Amino acid sequence: MVRPVSAPSLGARPLSAVLDVSFAERTDAGRERENDEDYLGHAAPATPSRARSHGWLFALADGVGGQDRGEVASREAVEDILAGFHAAPAGEPPAALLARLAQSANLHVYELGKSTGPGGVSMATTLVACILRHDRVTVAHAGDSRCYLIRNGHAEALTRDHTVARDQARLGVISAKEEAESASKHLLTRSLGAGLFVNVDIAEHSLEAGDALALCCDGLHNSVAGEDIAAAVAGDASLEDAAERLVDLANERDGSDNISVQLIRVRSVERVGMYRGRPYKLR
User: Fold this and answer.
1) How many helices (H) and strands (E) does the chain have?
2) How confident is the model over 218-236, as a mean pLDDT?
3) Terminus of the chain with fewer CB atoms < 10 Å: N or C?
4) Dist. CA 136–CA 206, nearest whole Å
5) Greater model confidence, 147 or 281
6) Can you give the CATH number for the domain in which 125 is found?
7) Predicted TM-score of the model (pTM)
8) Average pLDDT over the chain, rounded to whole?
9) Is residue 266 part of a domain?
10) CA 84 to chain CA mean position, Å
11) At 2, which helix (H) or strand (E)?
């Protein structure tokens, strides 16, 4: 089902005065799975002051296949992150906030698994999440769900898959071709819920008006390339239509896994500088 969402009104202020985005999201079970173990969530600011103090949050989780209750792990991880974001103090730096939220979600999923039935069950999920604030996006991820930045018709992956094959390719043990064909390309080296602590990659990137972001699970990016995503969101294309088109394309080319995507278009940014960790507006 497509879940189109329009950006809430931020009052009578001109769009150029505050970061403003539009977005759409879609998740689909695929052609071969009965259950959808992916889960999507977002938090949109209702006022300009909230946009400045907290920003926008997007999160996508893919329950780990082969584990018990993957759909529970993904849902609980995202909902825990959303609750923590809503309760976060104003102005907490996005990198620190995402690190804290990811660790909280990891512990929540881990403890939930341990408390489920005699001896507990194994529960785990990937995570990719981002906070957009002012003129920057901060991305956190663990596992093989991805975030792409689309700018001037080109899609750049802002995340690196945490898989055995990717680590081997990065170290030069195998080639890119061997990585693509490796049986270990789906074997995760990091995930939420697998242990008491998780190592989450976090990075900050600048944003420009006209940029787009795409968060997606491996069910999409394993069969849909970055250039396909860039083409889908090109120009003034409807994000709702683009999300549907990308999911349909993944189903046509493969469809053996769940497919989820969040598309975010940056309509305007608020240029700021940083002084001692605090933002100030650039004139």
Assistant:
1) 8, 13
2) 96
3) C
4) 4
5) 147
6) 3.60.40.10
7) 0.89
8) 89
9) yes
10) 16
11) strand 2-5
Q: Tokens for 73, please give them.
A: 């792990």
Residue 40 buriedness (CB in 10 A; 0-12 / 13-18 / 19+): buried
In the chain, helix, strand, coil percent, each to 5?
Answer: 30, 30, 40
Q: Please give the structure tokens belonging to residue 165.
A: 């094959």
Q: What is the DSSP string of 34-90?
A: SS--EEEEEE--SSHHHHHHT-EEEEEEEBPTTSTTHHHHHHHHHHHHHHHHHTSPT
| Cα 241 from Cα 38, distance rounded (Å) | 20
Token pair of 168, please? 């081997």
Residue 233 inside a domain? The answer is: yes
Q: How many domains does the chain have?
A: 1
pLDDT (0 to 100) of residue 12: 36
Residue at 170 is within a domain: no
Place of tokens 């898959």: 161
- By the 10 Å C-beta count (0-12 exposed, 13-18 middle, 19+ buried), 90 is classed as exposed
Is the residue at 218 inside a domain?
A: yes
**Eight-state DSSP code of residue 192:** B
